[in-house]
């Protein structure tokens, strides 16, 4: 196959995925597109990590459409099987550019829309303008509220919209996802969730805020627990204004305790991951931090959050640094609330009344 052709270049890139060769894979990504380049680095790290856990993942070249001598699009097929989570075949189309006689990926061929008041950019496919407008409006209002309410000073935020969950899944990679968010990456969401976008963004922007306030050192049950808490507590009132009402969390507490009364301990929460079939990082994480906020207040919770910012930054996805973030989270909890075992016991007693 002729050197410098898109078919040859992308088949070399695909081979690097099968070979777990991060260096070769990254040589086929546009390093001058920093957000995308970082996301692709995380992509190959995730692929290698998942395969190490027993998943299978393969990428196949589907087709290339030439636009000019230096631009075009390539469609890739991503097949993935994860034990306990099934299988999927997903397709994603990327823009490609030719750099020094080599074809490299340069993200999905997005349009973009920027907020006039916040440092937010929404990337979307042609024909998805209305979904992009709603997403940008909701994101701008939530960020503005979080800045005032929680003293958050965010950097640039990017939100990528995809027409289908399959495209979100292919870009992570994951078997099946409607949305995705990790520190240092874009928020990704399918436009199939547009009707629920405000709720989704309160959750995902909480992740961004916690990532910034903790230097990305929060355990997954802090991330998912507090994001679940704000997802239910932050809403638009009848005038369209963003509001916070902690009493709204009580309904979620009742629902969470309806099926079972027990709450996992902090130690138990530290041993679960994103594949947990019970979703304990959401349910039990929410119950833990709802308890801490109800009994000690929101300000004390944020004291604990700020303790985590003192630790060094680890440039990895949350699932890849769980042992370290659990260790740091326990240290922060114990500094503010006392021994983790006592906190867990008191939390369980609180909900068994």
Describe this protein's structure:
InterPro entries: Peptidase_M4/M1_CTD_sf (IPR027268). This is Peptidase MA superfamily protein. This protein is α+β, with helices and mostly antiparallel strands and 353 residues long. Helices cover 47% and strands 19% of the residues. The chain has 3 domains: 6-105, Nuclear Transport Factor 2, Chain: A (Roll); 110-197, Zincin-like (2-Layer Sandwich); 214-353, no CATH class. The protein has helices at residues 6-18, 22-26, 34-52, 129-150, 165-170, 197-213, 220-233, 249-259, 266-269, 280-296, 298-308, 322-337, 340-351, and strands spanning 56-66, 71-82, 86-99, 102-105, 111-114, 120-124, 157-162, 179-180, 187-190, 234-236, 242-244. The protein has a 5-stranded mixed sheet. A hairpin with a 3-residue loop joins β2 and β3 (86-99). The N and C termini lie far apart (71 Å).
Strand content: 15-25%
Strand order of the largest sheet: 5-6-7-9-8
* Overall form: globular
Q: What is the C-alpha radius of gyration, as a whole number of Å?
A: 21 Å
**Overall mean pLDDT:** 95
Order of helices and strands: HHHEEEEEEHEHEEHHEEHHHHHH
**How many structural domains in the coordinates?**
3
Helix content: 40-55%
* Helix vs. strand class: alpha+beta
Uncertain residue ranges: none
Total number of strands:
11
What is the overall number of helices?
13
Question: What is this entry, summarized?
Answer:
With 353 residues, this protein is α+β, with helices and mostly antiparallel strands.
Describe the structure using short key phrases.
353 residues; alpha+beta; Zincin-like; 3 domains; 13 helices; 47% helix; Peptidase MA superfamily protein; Peptidase_M4/M1_CTD_sf
